[in-house]
Amino acid sequence: MENRLTLFRRQMSAFDGAADPRDAIEKGFYIQEPDHSATTRLVKRICLKADSRYLLTGGIGSGKTTQLFRIEQLLKDTDIYPHYVDLTEYENPEEIQAGLLRSIAGLELIALLRNAGVTLDIDVFKTINEYAYGKSIEVEGGGIPSSQQLLSLLSPLQTTVHRRGVLSPNRTNQSDRVSQSLIILVKEFEQKFKKKLFFLFDGLDRISNVESFIQAASDRLDDSGVGFLIVGPIRLLHSSFTDSIDSHFSHVEYRSAFDVQHDSEAYSFFEQIIICRSTKDFFQSDALKQIIISSGGVLRDLINLTQASIQEAYLSDAESVESRHVESAVNLLGRAKILGLNADENVTLERIVNGNELSSITLPEEISLLANGRILEYKYPEHHFEVHPVLETLLSKRSLV
Amino acid sequence: MFSCDEILQRILSVPSQNSWFMFIIPKNQQHDAIEELEESIPIFLNEPVEVISADIGLKNLVEKIDVSDDRILLCHFEAWTDQDWKVLDGERTRLIRGNGGFLLLTPEAAELFQRYAPHFSSFIGAKVFAMELGTEILTESEREHRLELLQSSLGKTNDEVIRLAEIGELPPDPVYGEWLILLDRGEFVG
Fold first, then answer.
1. Could you tell me which of A222, A212, A265, A269 has the C-alpha nearest to residue A96?
2. A94–B90: do the CB atoms touch at under 8 Å?
3. Which of A27, B68, B137, B170 could form a disulfide with B164 if both were Cys (CB 3.0 to 4.6 A apart)?
4. Contact status of B113 with chain A (Cβ, < 8 Å)
5. Which residues of A touch B114 (CB under 8 A)?
């Protein structure tokens, strides 16, 4: 018979905020988002114009990576070959610069073709590698590498472990040659795979400098006919680049929080996420509702709150999750989210909690609160902003003291 | 505030897969907290913990995390700047690939972390605990209650657990480590 700790651990393991979304999809935890969600529409757009640039942005934990994997899944049934790349495997987002996407596109194409058994042109390989890593390709015994040695260097790229430090300072800057090489690689790819390549670039939502993001995302891959969808920071929508964003991307997809208070489909979507990973009986109905509402419609917060509520139930010797357990979990998450706020941000939050509606995001403290998930933006059924419910509870208590 | 015992029970109840916790402790108690956690976590979890000090610098820290096979306890972030935390936030994918770990932060460092590493912070979620040293010893009634809970949860008596430990047939579940310690039979642990 399963002991109580094992039972609770099993329940908690299904609600891991740090889990790889691909694992969740493989375990059958993926729930179709409400009809008004954008995934299907976005896939249609990509299918119509696969050589364009698309931007996906949204709050922290809003499900951007899961959406990328879902898009990848849907595109596999079309004439497009989706290829997911976590850019942070190559470079820290704080250190990126223009040329990043071309380098990585080249390196990934080389790896894809090598894995498919295609023999590559040595000059193309050299051009891409030198553009990415510079001329200092090290070989045993030192000196200039022979063609044979260069070819042997190709094999590490077959693995998923990437060399860090793409775009070293001593890289070459032969833009035309790189374009030509990319065109050759893409032609080889299309010949071999009989599909159009489309990149799904993840990870750059973590960049703090919006200008660096724009520089990196403006890389021209379209000479080679390859398009991409890139995940970017939410600050981009509230920066000096906001007005010119349409010139950088064919389409901007924004993932707002789900309005679980006013949208019954969104509520049901969140409920299904919990139920499919657990059993409805494990949560008392008022507790389940409290978790969903307190998540603010942010997917990762739903997962975190559910796990924390299960833990509270375990520690208090209960057999199921009750409202009092959710209250403790909400308190813990609220206290974590209130840490690190500055005076202006505190004043802004208190102002909203006390009934002053926020109609747009303009001030630096408002942008910061939105970017860090303390203020949530809802697009459907009506556009509005709210303080995250776990903070609202804490701030309301504070104002009563 | 959470006692070390309570924190250990919370760690124990969460599946070991890649979970991160944050503990907040004043700077003058950090040394004692590290000693306490370094000693207690392996007993409770039945697995080693590697303490890595952040004063070796960001790049070295990330490299050490990358190659560690153990759960890690990261500490001494007092000298870290806003930019250090931002760069660490960018390395989130690599950080969450391992076995998870613990961040031991002063209140000031915790504020910087929440502000400048929001992506990493969102993975920690509600697992943020202000730690209180010196209140680790459970009262007699708390100890009794915990033992009763373990007996009812696991369907074994205290005597049975000691007997199984004596003949080396106690299941490898870390919960039995906690049980033996509550029974003052720590000699069977480890």
1. A212
2. yes
3. B170
4. yes
5. 336-337, 339-340
Give the chain A residue nearest B176 (alpha carbons).
A5
Query: Do B15 and A372 make contact, defined as CB atoms within 8 angstroms?
Result: no
Can you read off the two tokens belonging to residue A330? 């909400």
Q: Smallest Cα–Cα separation from B3: which of B27, B25, B28, B35?
A: B25
A233, A207 Cβ separation under 8 angstroms: yes
Beta-bridge mates of residue B74 = B52, B103
Q: State how far the Cα of B111 lies from the Cα of B109, in Å rounded to an integer.
A: 5
What kind and span of H or E run contains A203? none
Chain B neighbors of A93, CB-CB under 8 A: 90
Residues of A in contact with B91 (CB under 8 A): 88, 92
Would the CB atoms of B128 and A314 count as touching at under 8 Å? no
Cα end-to-end distance, chain B, whole Å: 29
Say whether A336 and B114 touch across the interface (CB within 8 A).
yes
Q: Return d(Cα A281, Cα A21) in angstroms, integer.
A: 25
Burial string for A129-159 (b: 16+ CB within 10 Å, else e) reads bbbbbeeeeeeeeeeebeeeebeeebeebee
Tens-place pLDDT, residues A327-376: 999 999 999 999 999 999 999 999 999 999 999 999 999 999 999 999 99
Q: Which residues of B touch A207 (CB under 8 A)?
A: 90
The residue ranges of DSSP E strands in B44-124, in sequence order, are: 49-53, 71-75, 100-105
Q: Give Cα separations from B147 to B15, B175, B178, B182 (angstroms).
A: 21, 11, 10, 7
Interface contact B90-A3, CB threshold 8 A:
no
pTM metric for this prediction:
0.87
Q: Which of A18, A329, A341 sits opposite B126 (nearest CB)?
A: A329
Among A89, A304, A315, beta carbon nearest to B125: A304
Instruction: Give A-chain residues touching B149 at CB under 8 angstroms.
Output: 317
> Quick one: which H or E segment has residue B4?
helix B4-13
- Secondary structure, 3-state, A96-115: CCCCHHHHHHHHHHHHHHHH
Regions of chain A where pLDDT drops below 50: 1, 138-145, 149, 151, 154-165, 401
Question: What six digits make up the tokens of A129?
Answer: 């590698």
DSSP at B164: H
Inter-chain touch B15–A314, beta carbons under 8 Å: no
Query: How many residues in total does chain A contain?
Result: 401
> Model confidence over B114-155: pLDDT tens digits?
999 999 999 999 999 999 887 656 677 778 888 888 888 788
Whether B19 contacts A16, CB under 8 Å = yes
Residue A101, judged by CB atoms within 10 A of its CB (0-12, 13-18, 19+), counts as buried
Kindly report the number of other CB atoms within 10 A of residue B41's CB atom.
24
Instruction: Tell me: cis bond preceding A381? Omega within 30 of 0 counts.
Output: yes
